[in-house]
Amino acid sequence: MANTIINIGRQFGSGGKEVAMLIGEKLGIKVYDNELISKAAEESGFSKDFFNRCDEKRSIFSISSFFAGVGAGAGAGIGGTFVNDNDLFKIQSTVIRGIAEKEPAVIIGRCSDYILRDMECLDVFITAPNDFRLRRITERLNIDEEDAEKLISRQDKTRETYYNYFTYGDWGVASNYDLCVDSSILGIEGTADFIIDFGRKAGLIKL
């Protein structure tokens, strides 16, 4: 039987990560976000810091100072002196597919809905009105509204650029997902419960 896999896309400040963590807790399954970076680092030989710097961003880096415990020869096998965003995406894609094939999981971002498009998954996008997101970010980061608005715009643009480049699709467009939900309506826990109920009724959550 296929594993239960829930892919969560999210606008910055919508509470998507918190919703994902609650879903994982309620279903008793792992949630992969920063853990995914660690796994990609372990499996590729790069340091975790390398993946942190380019997570959900398009970029190109020199590999000379980012290897952890491997020789220069290993780097030469991945694009020579430099490793680019396509190489990193391939590594993370391999990690994501490996997770989905062996265990039920909630996977946050990183184009997981596209990477696993040939598998049975529940693909969700979490959004929220701008004022709701502004309030969350100003409170969480203790910054003023102007700085929060700039941060939201920058983070959303970064995620949109990353997703659109690798998927040839449109980040946040409803037709790409099984469910799009406004987290401000039911709150974080209510949104998590709603997604679980929807997934079970759709036959995509079997837990």
Describe this structure in words.
This protein is of the alpha/beta class. It has one domain: P-loop containing nucleotide triphosphate hydrolases (Rossmann fold, 3-Layer(aba) Sandwich). 54% of the residues lie in helices and 14% in strands. It has 9 helices and 7 strands. The chain has helices at 16-27, 34-44, 48-54, 72-76, 85-102, 112-115, 130-141, 145-167, 183-201; strands at 5-10, 30-32, 60-62, 82-84, 105-108, 122-127, 179-182. The strands form 2 sheets. A 5-stranded parallel beta sheet has the order 2-5-1-6-7, sandwiched between helices. A two-stranded antiparallel ribbon has the order 3-4. Helix 1 packs parallel to helix 9. The longest helix has 23 residues, at 145-167. The model is unreliable at 59-81 (pLDDT under 50).
Proper CATH architecture: 3-Layer(aba) Sandwich
What number is the mean pLDDT? 85
The CATH superfamily appears as P-loop containing nucleotide triphosphate hydrolases
Estimate percent helicity.
40-55%
* Unreliably modeled segments: 59-81
Radius of gyration: 18 Å
The tally of domains stands at: 1
Distance between the termini: 12 Å
Strand order of the largest sheet: 2-5-1-6-7
**Biggest sheet, in brief?**
5 strands, parallel
Give the SSE order as H and E letters.
Answer: EHEHHEHEHEHEHHEH
Tell me the layout of helices and strands.
Layout: E1 5-10, H1 16-27, E2 30-32, H2 34-44, H3 48-54, E3 60-62, H4 72-76, E4 82-84, H5 85-102, E5 105-108, H6 112-115, E6 122-127, H7 130-141, H8 145-167, E7 179-182, H9 183-201
Parallel strand pairs: 1-5, 1-6, 2-5, 6-7
Antiparallel strand pairs: 3-4
Helix pairs in contact: 1-9, 2-3, 2-5, 7-8
